[in-house]
Amino acid sequence: MEYVSALLPPIVMAAFFTAIVVVIVKTQGGSNKAKEDAVVDAALARVEATRQADGTTTS
Q1: Distance of CA 30 to CAs 35, 36, 37, 42, 53, Å?
Q2: What is the pTM of this model?
Q3: How far apart are CA 20 and CA 27, in angstroms?
């Protein structure tokens, strides 16, 4: 029975890792992609506006 207790943690971690990968893949693209792109574009626009107001440049 020691082999069961030795194999259980890696099997559980592998199952969780697989589930995380599946969720990440399923949430890419589609309607979520447009929302995520809009959020990123808005954040970049805010950063750029702040840089221009401060007079700093990107080098």
Answers
A1: 9, 10, 11, 19, 35
A2: 0.48
A3: 11
